[in-house]
């Protein structure tokens, strides 16, 4: 068994456990591990995704990532830790390379994971990783530093960081740190960005991100299944595909506990348990949108409404939405993340209201739902800071007078948690 | 159509092309006609200068020259009947000249340099993924005065006058300085867009080769506006200090223009709804209403606009009220800071109108602007087609000039284009640079 970590041989002391995932490992992997490792990593990424949508601060994220990694990525055999990291990463690459949407999510979560793992590394191994990325940045010497030190202090004050006189600064072509430039977090002089040691992460991370982004596109365009043996393909394809469809938390395509929904209940349900985005869609009153809403809820909850009847009445919409009949099972419910990222065009009534409504409309809609006073201000505050899912979570908490620790990540989850709170178990809706 | 006819036609209309000052540009639609434009393209348009610029040194005999370079550049033409021709490309200056003369486009746009000749892009489609892709593009900026409609009261929409031109001058100064001092660019061309704004072309090799991500980051660096409140696009400033770029813009340009020019030009503190809009920026409503009442009660008194601004400043900076430290700066930024059209700058394949085009609505030529003297630039004195033709005609048949434009007001613009932009650029362009 051979471990292919990087071109550079790690020296015993400083060797970091953080991989840049440049090459797929040539390891023999048991089929069970193939799947289990991937699921463990998925738990980490999912946890990160939750943390981000809860609007956690960087220091909270750091703790979270550390914790997620520790609980999910351990292995009874210490020598296998690195392999587990590598294998799980590359398996998920296969899973998440297949569409733009999946790539975007994976790229974002893996990059976040990398960023915080990098921060947790010792300065020594951070420097080694920089070297692995071939970032030959020279630290500012004393004379150079003296010349610009006032500006450097000004920058750190502008981003509300205490300036540390001992900080080492690197002079870097500004093209290499677009993120820092965009947020004015560096001093720029004649095409160079003056990057503090603690910002180096940003450079390394942006290299990591762009490498991974390219790799994902490549993995997809190479059609990985065509490059492996036939028998492997048969074994691995189902696993990869299954991993892909279970990618966001609970599986909302299965019948739920609250399946006793008939059409006549929907009005009432909309008032008590729909998240704002679904109320909006539902309440806009235009026939087609009502049907859309019904189709949506049907696909998710109303297995018992009677598929036949539903199809008869709403087949047009279904056909319209999917282009052809019989495709309806592909109607994957949108997660909050997806809804937020979609910009509705004029005349559309979907999208995340917290993000897409004007402040006025949002206030009106919220007060209709029974949000007011302090709670309203808190929600609007989250909206202004672009924490749309948090705003939705707070709305939920206000209306239900209960806390929602997991945060709202999916409209269906909102609904289910609402039902759980509003009706004692076993009781039907009507 | 020959020149004589066009000039006669113009004389019949008795256009006073020298009308001074404040005339509104859009009313001048009689300054433009396709017959005039034909003469302009026939005698005045500086083809060879555009060609040399767009070749970036690849038009020489040097073995390192990339001969295909110019021909991979996209040009787009808007024709008289609003037909839009994209992906035009040309082998040489003559090729470019002939096509423009033949088609007489009302607008010429310049796009990126592609990996392959854009007019033959279809031939490469079968060849595989992404063969046809932009590889080089000047970093460009587009600033429209219409973006400032919430803070200017002299004009609205596409109109521009000497009272609101200072907003453009501010944008030019702030961005030009940052491009040079912060980003280290040297080859920067500012151009009047012919009607309501200015364009900027950053032509250093380094700028032309930037990825979209880097372009976005520069665009964001220049962006301080965070949504709009009460109909005002509000600048949002946070942190204990201003970033050096913003601090320099503020002390060197913004504050000065605000206090010496805009307060007076736009009557920001003498008209009630205007100063109410400013007071709305103050987060502490009790402070805002205190000042408001003071000024209301003072109606008959002679408190000047500058006096009111001083009052407001000292109130906000007195330190008596928490959270107002940034407020003076936020007011000044909101009323002065450049408002660029971000989308234009973020992507390599965004088209931008070529310099020396003629704006069909105003008949004005898109002439270069000297950023050092952008205060003195008067958009209402920019040469129009009819003026140029008149000058051409009045000059008679002079044999002592090499080019026809030397007998017109365009002379100055072309000389400036060459001396301050093209020549230094050529000097820096080793082949393939």
UniProtKB/TrEMBL annotation, chain A:
CDD domains associated with the record: PriL_PriS_Eukaryotic
Pfam family, one: DNA_primase_lrg
GO biological process: one example: DNA replication initiation
Annotated PANTHER family: DNA PRIMASE LARGE SUBUNIT
InterPro entries linked: DNA_primase_C (IPR058560), DNA_primase_lsu_euk (IPR016558), DNA_primase_lsu_euk/arc (IPR007238)
Molecular function terms from GO: 4 iron, 4 sulfur cluster binding; DNA binding; metal ion binding
UniProt name for this protein: DNA primase large subunit C-terminal domain-containing protein
Organism: Dendrobium chrysotoxum
A GO-annotated cellular component: alpha DNA polymerase:primase complex
Gene3D superfamilies on file: 1.20.930.80
Cofactor(s) for this UniProt protein: [4Fe-4S] cluster
Boundaries of every DNA primase large subunit C-terminal domain copy: 281-415
Keywords from the named record: 4Fe-4S, DNA replication, DNA-binding, Iron, Iron-sulfur, Metal-binding, Primosome
Family the UniProt entry places it in: Belongs to the eukaryotic-type primase large subunit family.
Automatic annotation (TrEMBL), chain B:
Lineage: Eukaryota, Viridiplantae, Streptophyta, Embryophyta, Tracheophyta
GO cellular component assignments: alpha DNA polymerase:primase complex
Species annotation: Dendrobium chrysotoxum
Family, similarity comment: Belongs to the eukaryotic-type primase small subunit family.
One Pfam family hit: DNA_primase_S
Record field: compositional bias (Basic and acidic residues): 1-15
EC class: transferase
EC number of this enzyme: 2.7.7.-
GO BP term, example: DNA replication, synthesis of primer
Chain intervals for the UniProt region annotation (Disordered): 1-24
Keywords recorded for this protein, A-Z: DNA replication, DNA-directed RNA polymerase, Metal-binding, Nucleotidyltransferase, Primosome, Transcription, Transferase, Zinc
Domain of life: Eukaryota
GO molecular function, one term: DNA-directed RNA polymerase activity
Protein name per Swiss-Prot or TrEMBL: DNA primase
Cofactor: Mn(2+); Mg(2+)
InterPro entries reported for this sequence: DNA_primase_S, DNA_primase_ssu_euk/arc
């Amino acid at each position: 068994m051979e471990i292919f970590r990087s071109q550079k041989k790690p020296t015993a002391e400083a060797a970091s456990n953080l991989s840049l995932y440049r090459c797929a490992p040539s390891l023999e992997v048991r089929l069970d591990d193939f799947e289990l490792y991937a699921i463990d990593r998925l738990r980490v990424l999912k946890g990160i995704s939750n943390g981000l949508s809860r609007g956690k601060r960087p220091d909270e994220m750091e703790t979270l990532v550390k914790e997620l990694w520790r609980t999910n990525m351990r292995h009874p055999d210490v020598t296998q830790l690195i392999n587990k990291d590598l294998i799980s990463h590359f398996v998920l690459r296969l899973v998440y390379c297949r569409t733009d949407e999946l790539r975007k999510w994976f790229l974002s979560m893996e990059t976040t994971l990398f960023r915080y793992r990098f921060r947790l590394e010792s300065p020594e191994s951070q420097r080694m990783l920089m070297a692995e990325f071939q970032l030959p940045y020279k630290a500012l010497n004393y004379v150079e530093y003296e010349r610009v030190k006032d500006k450097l202090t000004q920058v750190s004050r502008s981003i509300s960081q205490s300036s540390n006189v001992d900080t080492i600064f690197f002079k870097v072509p500004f093209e290499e740190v677009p993120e820092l430039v965009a947020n004015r977090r560096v001093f720029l002089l004649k095409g160079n960005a003056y990057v503090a040691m603690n910002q180096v992460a940003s450079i390394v991370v942006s290299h990591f991100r762009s490498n991974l982004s390219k790799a994902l596109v490549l993995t997809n365009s190479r059609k990985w299944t065509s490059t492996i043996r036939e028998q492997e393909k048969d074994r691995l394809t189902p696993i990869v595909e299954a991993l892909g469809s279970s990618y966001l938390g609970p599986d909302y395509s299965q019948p739920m506990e609250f399946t006793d929904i008939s059409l006549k209940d929907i009005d009432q349900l909309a008032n008590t348990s729909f998240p704002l985005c679904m109320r909006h869609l539902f309440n806009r009153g235009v026939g087609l949108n009502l049907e859309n809403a019904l189709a949506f809820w049907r696909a998710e909850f109303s297995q018992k409404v009677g598929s036949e009847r539903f199809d008869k009445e709403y087949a047009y919409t279904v056909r319209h939405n999917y282009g052809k009949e019989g495709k309806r099972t592909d109607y994957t419910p949108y997660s909050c993340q997806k809804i937020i990222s979609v910009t509705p065009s004029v005349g559309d009534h979907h999208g995340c209201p917290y993000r897409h409504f004007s402040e006025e409309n949002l206030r009106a809609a919220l007060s209709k739902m029974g949000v007011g006073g302090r709670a309203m201000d808190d929600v609007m505050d989250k909206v202004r800071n672009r924490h749309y899912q948090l705003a939705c979570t707070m709305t939920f908490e206000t209306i239900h007078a209960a806390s929602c620790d997991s945060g709202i990540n999916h409209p269906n989850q909102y609904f289910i948690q609402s039902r759980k709170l509003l009706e004692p178990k076993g009781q039907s809706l009507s | 159509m020959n020149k004589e006819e066009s000039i006669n036609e113009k004389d019949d209309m008795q256009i006073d092309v020298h009308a001074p000052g404040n005339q509104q540009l859009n009313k001048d639609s009689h300054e433009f006609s396709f017959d005039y434009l034909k003469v302009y393209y026939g005698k005045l348009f500086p083809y060879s200068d555009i060609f040399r610029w767009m070749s970036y040194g690849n038009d020489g005999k040097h073995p390192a020259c990339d001969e295909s370079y110019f021909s991979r550049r996209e040009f787009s033409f808007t024709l008289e009947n609003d037909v839009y021709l994209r992906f035009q490309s040309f082998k040489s200056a003559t090729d470019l000249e002939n096509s423009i003369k033949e088609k007489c486009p009302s607008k010429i746009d310049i796009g990126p340099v592609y990996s392959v000749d854009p007019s033959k892009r279809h031939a490469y489609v079968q060849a595989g993924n992404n063969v046809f892709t932009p590889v080089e593009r000047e970093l460009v900026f587009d600033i429209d005065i219409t973006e400032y409609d919430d803070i200017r009261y002299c004009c609205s929409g596409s109109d521009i006058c000497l009272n609101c031109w200072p907003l453009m001058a501010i944008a030019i100064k702030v961005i030009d300085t940052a491009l040079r001092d912060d980003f280290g660019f040297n080859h920067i061309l500012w151009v009047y867009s012919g009607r309501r704004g200015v364009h900027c072309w950053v032509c250093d090799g380094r700028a032309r080769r930037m990825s979209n991500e880097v372009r976005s980051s520069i665009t964001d660096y220049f962006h301080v506006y965070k949504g709009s409140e009460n109909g005002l696009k509000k600048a949002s400033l946070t942190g204990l200090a201003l970033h050096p770029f913003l601090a320099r813009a503020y002390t060197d340009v913004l504050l000065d223009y605000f206090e010496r020019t805009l307060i007076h030009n736009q009557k920001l503190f003498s008209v009630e709804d205007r100063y109410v809009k400013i007071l709305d920026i103050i987060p502490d409503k009790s402070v805002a209403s205190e000042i408001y009442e003071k000024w209301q009660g003072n109606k008959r008194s002679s408190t000047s606009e500058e006096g009111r601004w001083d009052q407001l400043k000292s109130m906000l900076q007195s330190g008596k009220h928490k959270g107002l430290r940034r407020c003076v700066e936020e007011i000044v930024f909101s009323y002065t800071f450049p408002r660029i059209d971000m989308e234009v700058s973020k992507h390599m394949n965004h088209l931008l109108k070529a310099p020396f085009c003629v704006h069909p609505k105003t008949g004005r030529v898109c002439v270069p602007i000297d950023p050092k003297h952008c205060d003195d630039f008067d958009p209402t004195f920019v040469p129009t087609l009819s003026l140029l033709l008149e000058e051409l005609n009045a000059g008679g048949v002079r044999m002592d000039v090499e080019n026809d434009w030397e007998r017109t007001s365009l002379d100055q613009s072309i000389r400036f284009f060459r001396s301050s932009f093209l020549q230094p650029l050529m000097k820096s362009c080793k082949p393939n640079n």
